[in-house]
User: Which sequence fits this backbone?
């Protein structure tokens, strides 16, 4: 009879525990000499045995590592449903995920694309390979995801952007970018070299799986359409979604489900 | 001990039976005096108690009701995952889902939008309401889904199109359309009146939830871009996805998962 | 010695007489009860034995049958070089080559496409067949050439337009068009039905060989670009040339040589 | 009587000999230390007395100096008709007519624009002046013609391109361009500096007579439309022709006759 109860509890448990686990970790950055907080969401299917894909999910300007989990709690279900780990690093409010030429204390390109990836591969049972790594984000984080993936295609196999600042040049006075790159007026070369739209030459057809979207009422709409057209011109395959909506969490809570569906398709086929 | 086994079987059963059911039904059309074969996919969660949303999924030119289930068996999982019924009617090879002005034996607009909907509502535990009805399809079926939904917004709440022939006028000699509408040269008014792109005046902002997509290598790419631009011009909110790909089942087997995700979001929020 | 001289003269003559002949004829119009002056240019190779292609060459608003021969005398050389007959009918200053719904005395559609064609076939050794008939013109005559050729593809095999008024709707108050069609305000249906750009449904791919051009500084530039884009959208093959230049004889004296080269290629291949 | 026969033969001869002469010459390149084969077509009117214009006609990728004369024998008639010399140099299969920064053995810019021009002026009775020199070509040769003419406007007065690769950047992995310029990923500066579309700043209005064309089904269609739009934006007068057709000799055998007609008009007026 004890056994019976035990089994009932086990079965029930299979349902009860069917929920992703949320950890907050502190990953050390050697290049910045500090620990950086990251939210890690493990799917309920995570058992430490099977290698799991990882999606790096970046926040926007003025945000932090808790933005996504707070504003879109459904990402836990998505992690479960797709059996993926989702990691949300802190992007230091306004780092733009750069190794900033004008501020040596900001080295978030190195942190996310190398140090955090190494941390995840060391501490979790991950697919240690670009075929199991995706990166996406919103706004500043959409810029960041494309910036890091275009430059580090050996690390990431699939990249997304939601309402991303995929060209920063039209916004020379905004969001403290000039503290990182210098003013556009005096250092145009830094702005040219660090705008996602100017890194298209790093791509070749299907070298990277790409999805991005933007709302028609978003102030970043035009730069996303421009990137779409440039990619079409260069013959770089990509998914591009235009939707109703603006620069809001309503928009991103919808968008993220499509981005993750795209990444799941990628993970399902990339290693075959 | 018997009980133990029983419980184990029960628990196991919860997993084993988790599979959609596929019926082939014959729905009678009064207006065409014939039975029409349809494939109906019920989700595993279907219990005859809870009202379930229905997605009407149309095939392309030269196809039949079995195309989708044969070419994309994964739609059974999608029906399960989203707890929706999917119905694939036979579209008579080349009906274009018209009540054809030049061929009174072709009345597929009436069949799909009235007779089949009534059949489904009578024989299944459906949400008997536009908030629980979606319609989508590929190519000729993409045309059909928009054609029926734009004209019958009282019936359908959400509409999709994949690689749809959303403007038929550039193809006056193709796919037997002229047998249904008369030649474009002699009956331009029929072509003008029955092209999806010319029915945009029937829409008002958010009167219908709309998603459509097309591959950049598809011969229908230009008409889809044209519809997207017209909808933008008219301020009609819609999701539009441009992807790599052509007029192939590879394309549609990917596309359908995004279309159903969109419809699931619609069904989840439409009745609130 | 006489013979010698005779032969020398003959040989010389072969060169001397190598010049097109210009006739002015009066072709009767039954429907308008009047004779209409036309300039006919016969190539030097014309011998009354071999069937020759004919190009109908229309003048612009405020012009007459002598415009082309006066302003571009080189068309005689082109007739020679290509062994074609060129006919320039009088278009009554401002007929727009219509059978005008608002002025029954204006029936230039019938005159040019039927009566004049019959006259030419009766009085000259022509190719009596669409494969040997081209039509082009400038401005009002570019409109006219497309208008007549789109509607009478049984008569004309190749059509051109130079700086043509290929959409008249943007010019409701100009060039006395409203005397022919009624005002655009009160009779929009006449304007819609008689604008070249609205006759594209009469074309199917390669049903008519089409060439047109316009100068970038021409006030008709935008309507020509619009027609080009509509033809691309409808998949109707055509040659379209954008050039520097405005609404001037400098422009047309250059343009006509390219139009005739195109027509020569058509005549050379159409009857094979 | 003998005289009579002689005169008859002379007269007849005037017709019989009316045919262009085709030489194959070997022009030495000092910079590449080798002889380079070129086909030279002299018009029948060439008499060594009158200065004659020269059109340099370039082949495409994987071709050689015999491509044009073999595939389009009618260019002999065109040379006759227009009284021009046509020269077809060997472009070394894949030189792209560059002085290649990554391969010092490839110096075809210098060869065509300096050494071959000097050879032609030394060995033939040419107009030794930009007003008597044109250059055009197909595909790689269209790129080459614009590349050389934009950079050497002191040498060439008129330039054409047929289906030209007028922007190479979208094709970083194709046609061995990366052997000449380095990979686009590592040497984007070479690609930027050597794409025709990026040399527009070398032009001023009417500094060079320009004609180019492309088929709507050509893979180079989009780059040609892009160059057309850039030239319009910069106010550089040019003739641009869009036609039906793809990357085929059918297309080019038609195109070349329009290109040469344009060049003839240029030669007729440039020296006045």
Assistant:
């Amino acid at each position: 009879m004890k056994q019976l109860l035990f089994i009932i509890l086990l079965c029930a448990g299979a349902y009860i525990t069917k929920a992703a686990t949320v950890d907050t970790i502190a990953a050390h950055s050697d290049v910045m000499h500090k620990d950086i907080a990251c939210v890690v969401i493990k799917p309920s299917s995570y058992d430490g045995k099977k290698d799991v894909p990882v999606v790096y999910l970046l926040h926007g300007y003025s945000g932090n590592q808790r933005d996504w989990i707070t504003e879109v709690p459904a990402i836990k279900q998505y992690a479960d449903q797709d059996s993926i780990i989702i990691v949300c690093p802190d992007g230091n409010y306004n780092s733009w995920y750069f190794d900033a030429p004008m501020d040596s204390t900001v080295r978030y390109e190195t942190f996310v694309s190398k140090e955090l990836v190494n941390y995840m591969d060391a501490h979790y049972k991950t697919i240690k390979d670009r075929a199991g790594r995706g990166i996406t984000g919103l706004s500043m984080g959409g810029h960041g995801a494309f910036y890091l993936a275009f430059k580090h295609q050996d690390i990431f196999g699939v990249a997304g952007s939601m309402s991303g600042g995929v060209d920063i040049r039209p916004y020379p006075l905004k969001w403290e970018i000039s503290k990182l790159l210098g003013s556009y007026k005096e250092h145009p070369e830094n702005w040219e070299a660090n705008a996602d739209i100017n890194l298209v030459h790093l791509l070749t057809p299907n070298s990277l799986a790409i999805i991005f979207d933007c709302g028609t009422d978003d102030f970043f709409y035009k730069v996303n359409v421009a990137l779409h057209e440039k990619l079409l011109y260069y013959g770089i395959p990509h998914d591009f979604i235009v939707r109703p909506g603006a620069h809001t969490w309503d928009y991103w809570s919808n968008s993220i489900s499509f981005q993750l569906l795209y990444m799941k398709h990628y993970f399902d086929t990339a290693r075959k």
